[in-house]
DNA sequence: ATAAAAGTTGAAGTCAACTTCAAGTCAAGC
DNA sequence: GCTTGACTTGAAGTTGACTTCAACTTTTAT
């Protein structure tokens, strides 16, 4: 398959494919300068990459999921750790959702006077809640996507 | 309070405080060149900023939560929309966790032969799962934090 | 045969939220 | 009065995952 075929079938952009190749996540059968040709298995690889990203793995971590010959070899401890991590994240998000929903209907004239809101604030500042990141521009949908909190404190220094 | 006092009490770094001030999220009583003095209410502001960040709002969005005079004025529709968004995210994360847990114990010699894993892959590639971001270095904990998927497709353009 | 479309490369740009740096200012203790 | 140490500023650097650009080369269609 040529690159445009892979783009069509995978939904991954050509520049991302080239980037993945440079980073060692996928391979193509190519002499430099000529056009890339991909084996059909690249689609499976891209699927695993997408899965890994959705689960919160970095590209470096995802690369470890492939053996040098290109087959899949998941580190089960790594996977389980990520699942645990996601679970903790979900718990925090759930209390966050509850708090936000309350804030949206709270009858108190000022949120600073509402006990539930105070509790939310304390949960956000003390304890485990931390930085988050967010993506760039999105398209013409009404509701905008966003990123989500990470766990764990950053070092001051 | 001077800046070091705010750093101590809030846990927010001095450079972040200056950054927030430049971005218009907090205010200080200062003639340029001299040292910043913060009113005690800055701590409440910082708490709200931390909450907003944990919920996935950008700094620009968080700025909208403050009126020009510095009091809090939450847009309830915005809050409710964010709660909905987090809820969708949680649902996706939950199926992701389930899939990961399965992958970690799956008896199939190759994941590509496991039907549950196939299903996970399909869920990750087709449909709503998208890019994610992740934070920088973290401290000496065993398990590493990470970011999480966002919703919504980016334009090919 | 040739023009346009599609592909190639390395380098630089993007985004958000900060951090780090360099160079200078100010304040407090001895 | 002078050395620290805390603070100030604007500018530039960081991170991850890409995208965009400029300048070419290669196919494909006419």
Automatic annotation (TrEMBL), chains A, B:
It comes from the Bacteria. Residues 76-103 form a coiled coil. Residues 128-157 are annotated as: Disordered. GO terms for molecular function: DNA binding; DNA-binding transcription factor activity. Pfam families: MerR_1. It comes from Methyloversatilis universalis (strain ATCC BAA-1314 / DSM 25237 / JCM 13912 / CCUG 52030 / FAM5). Residues 1-68 form the HTH merR-type domain. Gene3D superfamilies: 1.10.1660.10. Transmembrane segments: none annotated. InterPro entries: DNA-bd_dom_put_sf, MerR-type_HTH_dom, MerR_fam. The keyword GTP-binding does not apply. Keywords: Coiled coil, DNA-binding. Residues 129-141 have a biased composition (Basic and acidic residues). This is Regulatory protein. PANTHER family: MERR FAMILY REGULATORY PROTEIN, REDOX-CYCLING DRUG-SENSING TRANSCRIPTIONAL ACTIVATOR SOXR.
